[in-house]
């Protein structure tokens, strides 16, 4: 039996991982129940778990190949969106192959655990249908069989009118719950970049595996978090949310379970295998479930890279081989990763298929996650770029690194991702080696992964040009045309690999830190701020127009100094826009005025972290989350502290002061910091336990911010491309569309 759910005329519908799409007047959505003919279920039609639609659901046989098949009708040939409602209370994923008319449309489609058998979720994919009748078959790939399948909704006929722009991740709600006190739990979730205006949410709790109960009396339309003070915390509590659009409650999000008698801590703990020290963690949706998974390094000899699903399930390990044993910061081996300000690894969905890949710079002797050893180069100095399957660690494509500077040895790398054409992601590789014992070669390349091949888009060689670089790269749209540029501390490349401008004629040389964001909300475009290392002119720091490189102001002092830190953020709401500071005082950027006449009264310029729920920024400084108070200013060693990470077993990683990763990966728009414990067998993810009325879409759906999450170097703050601070306006909807 089928049922016409919607004939759309400028309406919005919820699809898979919480994605809303606008349908045109000819689009139609039809529901096909798994318990009704012509659907067929290889198993039993059951009704023993509440929350299903219709009269039951398909409970498949526990066998590989166990299937449910639907016959669906399309009025015309073309693409269709299929939303599959399911539940999986087994605690482990139950993947399936999705076939259309006998051909596999997607293999290993993830039906992840939902936390309980009555906690229903929806997954979405796009398929091609023929005019007339079609078969859509879901077949289990493991001996556990399928998840319980309730129905599929098939949208055909009009397609979608997505917001034009770059393709970004189809994120879920990222629900997270932490104990904020002896009797309270903060539940937090994502507002997505393309959520419709006016969307609200209901929060549900399932206690000890029982039926889910709605907690809020009225639909929540403010901050995307909720304080639960009524839970029995001696038992396990599972939380999920349901969006509400136009008064109609939508499908449930994925669930997060707070274990019984859970510690009161602002922490999510993810178990990982024991092993060597971890310097960096990257995030990406490896399995396509809409939530972030983790890729990390092991600083062993040889080095390894490991991947884990969001729940800590180990996926694969890559051995970086004998050419990773020399881990010198400047002149290491050809497959060494993650030393000094270099990485050579990043994670992103590079082919827009809804699942993230892992990009890594390799050399001979690397053993991929499927056990295959790479020996495709003629000697051990030459290098290649490999794109690894996020679920298996197998190489999906490799391509040789250009050999322009091969005579000076292997090249270290910094990897990142940007949308150079405004639509598709490109892998950006900054690569560098030393000429003798002095100067450095610098090469930039851009790469496009098609799903089967890795192709170089362009190559840029610095040569003898005066183009100062530093220890960080930023990939950001500096001119607002929707296409990303690549920025170093002293120059910017256009997205086609040509030089946009150099700051060398303005007196800029090498430095450790720089930032680009909307620092001044009243000035057109984006602004940049950077610091200098032993500039002979005495230049300490500078503020400039990010699109043109034109200087707005500079600070020059007598003598030279290594200004190793510089920070940007709104820490003083008494002044317009953001403050910028290094070691010589806290300045309001737009006015170039000290906000404190006593220049010793400022926070340490390390890293920003949004935590407490207002729009001024907090600071992450050597394991301390701090909140500087402009009305009672204090020096760097006595800034009021919100969290000390070591109290929860966390240890610093990068440069002995940093987490392994920071960024918005769970809950609402506020940021997480990822550490390990001292035994390196647990990720300790700090996530806020403080409620907030501030409502912002997830920072991970902001193009500039998501690019920054792919970059390492000397780790520093990520920034959005709008003004985020006191008195801010509601940010514009991002010009993005979601991957399938």
Automatic annotation (TrEMBL):
Q: Which residues form the CBM6 domain?
A: 30-155
Signal sequence annotation: 1-27
PROSITE patterns per UniProt: CBM6 (PS51175)
InterPro entries for the chain: CBM6 (IPR005084), Galactose-bd-like_sf (IPR008979), Ig-like_fold (IPR013783), Integrin_alpha_N (IPR028994), RGI_lyase (IPR041624), RGL11 (IPR034641), RGL11_C (IPR049366)
Which controlled-vocabulary keywords does the entry list? Signal
Q: Which domain of life is it from?
A: Bacteria
Protein name in UniProt: Rhamnogalacturonan endolyase YesW
Q: Which species is this record about?
A: Phytohabitans aurantiacus
């Amino acid at each position: 039996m089928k049922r016409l759910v919607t004939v759309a005329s400028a309406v919005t519908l919820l699809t898979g991982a919480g994605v809303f799409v606008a349908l045109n007047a000819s689009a139609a959505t039809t529901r096909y129940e798994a318990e009704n003919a012509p659907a067929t279920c290889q198993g039993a039609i059951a009704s023993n778990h509440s929350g299903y639609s219709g009269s039951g659901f398909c409970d498949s046989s526990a066998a590989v190949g166990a299937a449910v098949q639907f016959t669906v009708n399309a009025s015309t040939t073309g693409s269709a969106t299929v939303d599959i409602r399911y539940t999986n209370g087994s605690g482990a994923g139950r993947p399936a192959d999705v076939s259309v008319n006998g051909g596999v449309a997607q293999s290993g489609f993830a039906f992840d655990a939902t936390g309980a058998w009555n906690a229903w979720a929806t997954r979405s994919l796009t398929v091609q249908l023929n005019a007339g009748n079609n078969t859509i078959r879901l077949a289990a790939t493991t001996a556990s069989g399928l998840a319980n399948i309730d129905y599929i909704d098939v949208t055909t006929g009009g397609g979608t009118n997505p917001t034009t722009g770059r393709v970004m991740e189809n994120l879920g709600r990222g629900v997270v719950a932490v104990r904020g006190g002896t009797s309270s739990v903060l539940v937090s979730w994502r507002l997505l970049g393309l959520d419709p205006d006016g969307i609200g949410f209901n929060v549900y709790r399932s206690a000890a595996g029982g039926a889910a109960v709605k907690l809020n009396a009225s639909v929540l339309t403010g901050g995307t978090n909720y304080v639960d003070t009524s839970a029995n915390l001696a038992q396990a509590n599972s939380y999920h949310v349901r969006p509400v659009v136009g008064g109609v409650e939508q499908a449930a999000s994925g669930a997060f379970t707070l274990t019984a008698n859970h510690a009161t801590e602002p922490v999510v703990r993810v178990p990982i295998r024991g092993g060597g020290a971890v310097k960096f963690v990257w995030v990406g949706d490896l399995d396509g479930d809409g939530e972030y998974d983790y890729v990390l390094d092991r600083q062993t000899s040889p080095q390894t890279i490991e991947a884990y699903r969001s729940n800590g399930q180990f996926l694969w390990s890559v051995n970086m081989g004998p050419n990773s044993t020399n881990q010198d910061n400047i002149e290491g081996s050809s497959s060494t990763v993650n030393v000094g300000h270099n990485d050579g690894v990043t994670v992103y969905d590079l082919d827009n298929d809804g699942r993230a890949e892992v990009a890594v710079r390799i050399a001979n002797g690397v053993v991929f996650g499927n056990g295959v050893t790479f020996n495709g180069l003629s000697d051990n100095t030459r290098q290649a770029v490999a794109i690894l399957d996020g679920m298996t660690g197998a190489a999906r494509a490799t391509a040789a690194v250009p050999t322009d500077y091969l005579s000076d040895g292997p090249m270290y790398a910094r990897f990142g991702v940007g949308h150079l054409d405004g639509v598709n992601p490109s892998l950006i590789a900054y690569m560098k080696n030393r000429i003798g014992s002095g100067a450095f070669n610098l090469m930039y390349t851009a790469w496009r992964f098609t799903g089967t091949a890795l192709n170089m888009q362009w190559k840029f060689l610095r040569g003898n040009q005066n183009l100062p670089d530093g220890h960080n790269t930023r990939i950001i749209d500096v001119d607002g045309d929707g296409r990303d540029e690549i920025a170093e501390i002293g120059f910017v490349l256009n997205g086609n690999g040509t030089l946009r401008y150099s700051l060398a004629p303005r007196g800029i040389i090498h430095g450790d830190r720089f930032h680009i964001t909307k620092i001044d909300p009243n000035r057109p475009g984006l602004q940049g701020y950077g610091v200098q290392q032993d500039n002979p002119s005495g230049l300490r720091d500078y503020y400039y127009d990010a699109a043109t490189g034109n200087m707005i102001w500079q600070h020059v002092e007598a003598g030279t100094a290594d200004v190793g830190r510089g920070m940007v953020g709104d820490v003083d709401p008494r002044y317009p826009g953001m403050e910028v500071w290094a070691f010589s005082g806290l300045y309001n950027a737009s006015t170039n005025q000290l906000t404190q006449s006593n220049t010793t009264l400022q926070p340490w310029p390390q890293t920003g972290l949004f935590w407490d729920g207002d729009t001024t920024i907090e600071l992450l400084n050597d394991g301390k989350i701090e909140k500087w108070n402009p009305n009672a200013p204090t020096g760097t060693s006595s800034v009021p502290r919100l969290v000390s990470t070591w109290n929860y077993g966390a240890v610093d990683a990068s440069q002995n002061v940093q987490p392994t990763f920071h960024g918005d990966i769970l809950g609402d728009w506020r940021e997480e910091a990822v550490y390990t414990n001292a035994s390196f067998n647990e990720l300790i993810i700090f996530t806020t336990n403080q409620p907030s009325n501030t409502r912002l879409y997830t920072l991970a759906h902001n193009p500039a911010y998501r690019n920054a999450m792919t970059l390492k170097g000397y780790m520093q703050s990520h920034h959005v491309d709008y003004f985020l601070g006191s008195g801010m306006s509601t940010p514009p909807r991002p010009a993005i569309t979601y991957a399938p």
